[in-house]
Design goal:
It is globular and about 55 Å long. Helix content is 43%, strand content 16%. The protein has 13 helices and nine strands. It is α/β, with parallel strands linked by helices. The strands form three sheets. The protein has a five-stranded parallel beta sheet, with helices on both faces. It has a two-stranded antiparallel sheet with strand order 5-6. Strands 8-9 form a two-stranded antiparallel ribbon. A hairpin with a 4-residue loop joins strand 5 and strand 6. It has a single domain, classed as Rossmann fold (3-Layer(aba) Sandwich).
Length: 327
């Protein structure tokens, strides 16, 4: 389908450092990615997992204000990676992506032979390698930040010799995540000519709770014993001290302390970004004050909180969350 990627696989000087933010959605990955993307030498790709459907097929709006096809960054990335959009069979790659994931979550079973696993990834793995290195080439960045969340996407990246993968496990209180997941969140993407209203997907209370458990289990099982390439960050700790959390991320990546886009410990100044998928907050540029979003504490019923707590309490305890909330 594409040219040989052996040059990437055997060239150490072309190794690309990728910070993959793994974890359930609605946990703060968009704002963390946006902040890191402001640092010199960093570039946030948003949720690259969705490039085949939301980017190439549905042409969602980039956070720069243009559509995916019109965005100068993404149009150049596609051209450099594949030659042109017409040479990309997005439907085929989308199908391969979904077959390689179980509900877009679980990696290919580890018990399979490594060569068999590599063969199963096939063109999908090759296409991803081309994308990541094309982004690096177009943006001149040494570190890419991918907020896709799905562990299986990180698993595919881990098999690429040309990728130096770091996994940031982003965790948020399960009750906050479930509250957000079960509410219908309107997402507005607009320009001067038209508006597109999309809605962030929603799941049932029980399904969302079980998915939160599964993410915690899969991510820790896959990377939790690798202290050099795995780090845990609680959303609540980030919201309490965002500047300190970003500094910790730089330390985790073994990157020199660069000038950060913070006006104060909580206020950040965000310039234009280029992410075509993620929380609608990606369209907000300029000054942002980071505050803890704990609306769930007043809006969730006691019965709802009790159910989610019962299903997720082992991991809540592991990450230091209180089991009982007043209100």
């Amino acid at each position: 389908m594409f040219e040989d990627l052996s040059a990437y696989a055997h060239s150490e000087d072309k190794r690309l450092k990728v910070l993959f933010i793994a974890g359930e959605g609605r946990s703060g990955s968009t704002i963390i990615g946006d902040i890191l993307g402001q640092i010199d030498g960093f570039f946030s790709v948003g949720e690259l997992f969705y490039i085949w459907d939301r980017g190439l097929i549905q042409n969602w709006r980039c956070s720069c204000g243009l559509s995916f096809e019109e965005c100068p960054v993404w149009s150049e990335v596609i051209a450099r990676a594949f030659g042109s959009k017409s040479q990309v069979n997005a439907e085929k790659l989308l199908g391969m992506r979904d077959r390689l994931h179980t509900r877009h979550l679980l990696p290919i079973p580890a018990r399979k032979d490594p060569q068999e696993r590599m063969a199963q990834m096939g063109e999908y793995r090759e296409a991803l390698a081309r994308l990541y290195h094309a982004v690096q080439s177009v943006t001149g960045s040494g570190v890419l930040v991918d907020g896709s969340g799905y562990p299986a996407q990180a698993y595919v990246l881990q098999t690429m010799p040309s990728i130096e993968l770091y996994v940031l496990h982003l965790v948020r209180d399960s009750r906050a995540v479930v509250y957000s997941s079960t509410a219908r969140k309107k997402k507005v993407e607009a320009d001067l000519e038209r508006k597109h209203d999309h809605y962030m997907g929603s799941d049932s209370l029980l399904v969302s709770s079980l998915l939160w458990d599964m993410y915690c289990s899969v991510i820790e099982r896959a990377w939790g014993d690798n202290s050099q390439r795995y780090a845990l960050l609680r959303y609540e700790d980030f919201a309490e001290s965002p500047k300190a959390a970003i500094e910790s991320c730089l330390g985790f990546l073994d990157e020199e302390q660069s000038e950060l886009p913070f006006v104060s410990d909580r206020e950040v100044l965000l310039g234009e970004t280029h992410t075509f998928s993620g929380n609608p907050t990606r369209f907000r540029h300029g000054s942002r004050v980071i505050r803890l979003d704990d609306e769930w504490k007043s809006k969730m019923s006691r019965l709802q909180r009790a159910l989610v707590t019962t299903v997720t309490f082992p991991w809540l305890m592991r990450y230091g969350y209180p089991l009982f909330i007043r209100g």
